[in-house]
Structure formats: structure tokens, C-alpha cells
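Closing statement on the FE2/S2 (inorganic) cluster sub-project.
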Amino acid sequence: MSASPTADEARILSARRLGVATELDDRLPEWNAEEDDVLVCRAVRQETHDVKTFVFSGRAPRRHSYKPGQFITLDLVINGQAINRCYTLSSSPTRPHLIAVTTKRFAGGIVSPWMHETIKPGVEIRAMGPMGEFNCVDHASPNGKYLLLSAGSGITPLMSMARSFHDLALETDVLFLHSARSPADIIFRDEQALMARSTGFRSVPICEGDSPTESWTGLRGRLSLPMLELAAPDFREREVFACGPAPYMAGVRAMLASAGFDMSRYHEESFKFEDLAPVDAAVSPPANTDVVPTYKVEFTRSRRTIEVSADTHVLAAARAAGMRLPSSCTRGLCGTCKSKLVSGEVSMQHQGGIRQREIDQGMVLICCAKPLSDLVIDR
Ligand code: FES
């Protein structure tokens, strides 16, 4: 990462200042993380008192192509330590020259305070993606009716969807119910109000309470079935996308299921939103340990050695042993669990969360790697 541009980058930056024609050239190639995975921060926007949007583009002008709802994985180096984190994009692919992530600063976290303090225009980061199954292209509503449910910074992928519907002037019927602590915490409030001037989009913020400068006159409390019935009596006809903290989404799932909603039309983003969120408590211990070989797996930084059977993913075994290791998707997609394999062999079936050159350098995704020998992992 460098804050001072090289001569080449300075030329590109200066071309950006003058070069609307260059930027709008419809022959621009797509940004491809396999060719050049560096993104340059172009702007930082303060959305609320503790939420910022970081806007990026490639080093050279590129188009960014993705499906609304997808995420990118940032490869960050914080205090000398490599940390991967995935963030859903808040930007819309209908404005393809830039991509953006929007993050809340979590007090006591590692990554979000670092991002808020460090990432400024000109700063470079490495990234992978965009990718992800949570999107409104693969799960488009057959009748064009959508219900977008978010809480806190979970608003980002749904905002990407809402911006896309709006920019494309599709004949959709979108209802966006966003839950926030107070009016001061409603992210993208003004933009949603502006979008609501068009037909086909309604925004209904829900606040738990007032902020010091504004008493809330809208829906108050936490999202509930009576509230949903009031705002969207036709919610059973809608494709539902939900994103927010785990307890919020558990509540949404239970609420919809109890109301007889067809859960095949429910989609949620399941990433954890901050550093080292607690792992799932219920992880089954490895089965068939009497017939499948078991190997020793040593985690050098955690100073733990555990037994992992050959039919068990390393991350699942580490969780079962009570270890807290960074992970998000647990399916080889996001890259959050990427670790250096110091010695040993694994079999790994990933889904794009790691580059071939990283595998060649001895990196593995421990969520989808099973041991073929004793292992030493730098984690
Ligand atoms: S947790 Fe997402 S790739 Fe391993």
C-alpha cells in the first residue's frame, strides 16, 4: 500500500482529473483481480457519524461488473498482519466506473477503525471478487415485487439492489424496511428519500429511539410482524432479501416462517460484520474417527495443536476445539480464512476465494481444506 503515487500512477490520476472522455470510453476493459488486484481509493464519504463509504476504482480506468448484492474481499495489512475481510458492495453496477463499500466503525474492532483512519483518496488496497450468490439477478422476483430488510450496516447490498432498480427504471415494486438505532444512524437516508420520489420505490426506516437532535416520528421499535403487515400487507407476494447482524436475521427468519411466508423466496447474506465475531457454538465433532486417519494440526500463532480427521475441514475442527479463527462464508468463497500452510498437505475444494498464485505460494482456505498429513498452519 502506498499513499504517494508513482510517476505512472500520477499520470493516471491526472488523466482522471481531466479525462471524462477516457473514463467514459465504452471500450474500457473490465477490472479483473487476476490481472491487477489493486484498487485505488478515489473518495471517502461520511454517511453518518460512524459510517463511511469508501469509493474505489482500478489503477487504470476500468469497468466494474457485478451483480447487486455481491461482495469483494479486501486483502488488508494491519500492523504488519495480513487480514482478509469481505464487504458487500453498496455501489450499483449501473454506475460501473467505481465500486464502493460502506462500513460502520465498530469500537473495539480491528479492521473497521483502521479503515476509517487509514483509507483516504490515493491509498491502494488489494482486493478479490466481486462474487457471491446473494444477489437480485440470480434470485429475481418473478412478479417484480421485492421486500428489502436490513439493519445497521447490513443495508449495503440492499442499497446496491435498490440503486440498480432505480437507475434502470425497471417496473419493480420495491419496499425497503431499514432498522436503525436512531434517526442519526439511518444510512443513505437522503438518497432513499430522493429515490422514493420515483414510483416503484418506498423507503420505511424503523428506529429504536430518538437521536439527541431529532425525535423520531416514524415506525418505532424493532421490526415485528404487525409492523410488517402495516407497511407491506402484500409481503407474502414479495421476494425477500435480508441483511444485518445474526440476531436480526434470526428474528426475520422466524417472523416470516411463522407468518407462512414461502421461505424459498427468502434470501439472506450471512457474513459476520466485524472482526472475530463469535463462531457458531454448534459444530459437530468429526465422525468416524476410528476408520478415517487423524492428523495433528498445529496453529503457530494461536499456539494450539488439535487433532483433525481426514474427512473434516480444518476450520470446522478448530471451531469444535473452541478456537476462534477469522472466517465468513465457510464455503471457500470469500477468502477470509486464508492462511499460510507452513508444512503438510491438504485437499482443498474452494469456490474462487483464493488465487492460483496464492495456492502456488502455499496459501490455503482452511474452511474447505482437509488434511492429508500432519499440518503446520501460520494462524
Ligand atoms: S471462510 Fe470464506 S473462504 Fe473460508
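The longest helix spans residues 155-168. With this model delivered, the sub-project is considered complete and its resources will be redirected to Aim 3.
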